[in-house]
Automatic annotation (TrEMBL):
<protein>
    <recommendedName>
        <fullName>Thioesterase domain-containing protein</fullName>
    </recommendedName>
</protein>
<dbReference type="GO" id="GO:0047617">
    <property type="term" value="F:fatty acyl-CoA hydrolase activity"/>
</dbReference>
<dbReference type="InterPro" id="IPR029069">
    <property type="entry name" value="HotDog_dom_sf"/>
</dbReference>
<dbReference type="Pfam" id="PF13279">
    <property type="entry name" value="4HBT_2"/>
</dbReference>
<dbReference type="InterPro" id="IPR050563">
    <property type="entry name" value="4-hydroxybenzoyl-CoA_TE"/>
</dbReference>
<comment type="similarity">
    <text>Belongs to the 4-hydroxybenzoyl-CoA thioesterase family.</text>
</comment>
<keyword id="KW-0378">Hydrolase</keyword>
Amino acid sequence: MQAEVVIEVPFHDVDIMNVVWHGHYLKYFEIARCKLLDQFHYNYMQMQASGYAWPVIESHVRYVQGIQFEQKIRVRAMLKEWENRLKIDYVIFDEATGKRLTKGYTTQVAVEIQTREMCFQSPQVLLDCLNAWSEFQSAQEQKP
């Protein structure tokens, strides 16, 4: 499962050299992550409504090439793990050339909001959302 977004880098994201400040890459990951979570109807509002928060506990960014002011980038988020945690991989490409500019990942775990206890496996509500999405995708593929 994956999702992509296209972003044109705004001026307020760059430094004096017109290169994106390193912390904004995680923001671009977040934008793509939200689109991915929307696909199976379990974005942050649905997470909260289900009684769980999903804090990021680990993030990694590998800066391959700097991104410039007004550059159009394509950010791809790919769900890699979901049984015990959410691990999402990201790749940022130059929209015009397709050249890879950055890659990374984030890891999130479920925390029960009421007790503030970390879950050692993903709650059933996430699995139900993923199963419903998978069934919907299968049905769409079978249509003529």
